[in-house]
Amino acid sequence: MGGIVHVAIVPGDEFSYYLNGTLVAGIPAHGIPYYMQNCKVATSPSEKVRLALSYGLAALDSVYTGACGGQYRFGAAPSTGIWHYGSSCGSGQGNYYQPAGVRGVDCSGLVYKMFQYAGVPFGWTSSTAMKNGIPQISKAYIQVGDLLVKHGHVAVYLGDGDGDGIPSVLEATPEWTNPDGSKTGVIISNATGYLQDSAYTAHRVPGI
Question: 33-203 — its CATH code?
């Protein structure tokens, strides 16, 4: 018989890991990734937004490919491990490794696939195209499922689902380096900086 494992995650307190009743690991709250404590999404009345978010949230922790990943930035998984070189398409990004059989995305590839999954006509495949082509709205009226975009990055607004006063976004960005050299990319982040940064504008996808 194996040992009995008990895990407790207490927001604002500690991640605790017990084995046979004995605490074997404790991580203080400041060491817990943001999205482990802030992963509740505000409800949207739009079925299409809910479908889009279900796809995006299911992609959490996917590998980041960068903007030079071709088909692989839209969720394709390679049969062998490959590198995506940022200099190859003039994007100025770094180089990103994608292991065999592991799907990956970049920021705009994730958003594209989310709305495609929801059945929404979505013809924009880069953050610049989204910023220039999707109707802009005032940040004062931003809703769950709207986009926060600047030239070079896009994130999906999730609202303040847990009522702690801190809204969230879903995004693909090279957040953590894994042992194999790949980058964990799809995460939930604090939206405050995006809302306050004038470089980011809010956009509502037509048809949602």
Answer: 3.90.1720.10
